[in-house]
Amino acid sequence: MRIGPPMFHIYRIFSAAAFAVIGIMTCECLPAMASSLDLSAQPPDLSAGYLNVTYDATTGTLSAVGWPMSFNEGGNPPEHASIVGGNYDLTADLTQSGLPVSGSLKITGTIPGLASSGTLLTGQLQLSQSGFGFQSPQAIQQSGSGDIFEFVFNVTGGDLAPYYQGKASVILDAWCSGFNGSFTTSFAASPYLSVADNSAVVPEPSTAILLLTALALGLPASASRWRHM
Q1: Average per-residue pLDDT in the chain?
Q2: What is the Cα–Cα distance from 206 to 178, expressed in whole angstroms?
Q3: Whole-prediction pTM value?
Q4: pLDDT above 60 for 204
Q5: Rounded CA separation 108/197 (Å)
Q6: Pair 150, 129: CB distance under 8 Å
Q7: What CA dihedral angle connects 34, 38, 40 and 44, to 10 degrees?
Q8: What contacts 196, CB < 8 A, 6 or more positions away?
Q9: Is the pLDDT confidence value at 53 over 70?
């Protein structure tokens, strides 16, 4: 079947969209380079400390285990300055190129003044390049901070879940871990010096969806311009 001018023009646009989406999917399969997610700690914010941070290159498991410290709804100082009888448990399985394979977050304890079942927040790691990030050793040296690892979890439950609106970001500051930018080598942070901020995040639309939406909105205008040529 011969494609006429109007249909050919639309066909070319959809072909370009298809190849662009394939390109995006291909890029997501490439090895990840050191890239920060540019997360920021903001209310609601649950702070955790005294974390034992380890990474086992044999299993590809990064873990941070310690205690939740305080919960801030937006006040200064935090409205809830203590969390009683809790545990902080973050686990992420990574490829050697730093891509997330699986992961979970579980924070337990009770907060005086808030009704609590004993489970404060649970989540599953977002499995995409936007679910895990880390700074290069060069960036860490320039900032003078610890080794920074970033996570985005899909919230699955817990008494604090309503504060997080479906997403929780974690900024893990692992002091003196020996991380050299590679996940082919095991490392461990100095015990009890590492901290984590657990904040709410606003989910962003997929890049592919944005691209297709923009192209779809442009189709009527393109067709109109062709008719008036």
Answers
A1: 78
A2: 34
A3: 0.72
A4: no
A5: 15
A6: no
A7: -90
A8: 47, 48, 49, 51, 64, 66, 88, 90, 170, 171, 172, 173
A9: yes
- Domain membership of residue 176 (yes or no) is yes
Domain that holds residue 218: 5-30+208-227
Higher pLDDT, residue 73 or 223: 73
Pick 106 or 75 by higher pLDDT: 106
Same domain, 11 and 105: no
Task: Examine the domain organization and report whether 121 and 14 are in the same domain.
Answer: no
198 and 215 in one domain? Answer: no
Q: Which residues face 170 on adjacent strands? A: 151, 198
Cα(115)–Cα(124) distance, rounded to whole angstroms?
Answer: 24
The answer to whether position 78 is within a domain reads yes
The answer on 101 and 57 residing in a single domain is yes
Q: Are residues 24 and 66 in the same domain?
A: no
Residues in the chain: 229
Q: Are residues 9 and 112 in the same domain?
A: no
What is the distance between the alpha carbons of residues 38 and 201, in angstroms, rounded to a whole number? 11
DSSP per-residue string spanning 37-61: ------SSEEEEEEEEEEEETTTTE
Query: Does 21 fall in a domain?
Result: yes
How many other CB atoms sit within 10 Å of the CB of residue 177? 22
- Tell the burial category of 62 from Cβ atoms under 10 Å away from its Cβ (0-12, 13-18, 19+): buried
**153 Cβ contact list (under 8 Å, min separation 6):** 103, 104, 105, 123, 124, 125, 126, 167, 168, 169, 170
d(CA 180, CA 186): 10
Residue 145: inside a domain = yes
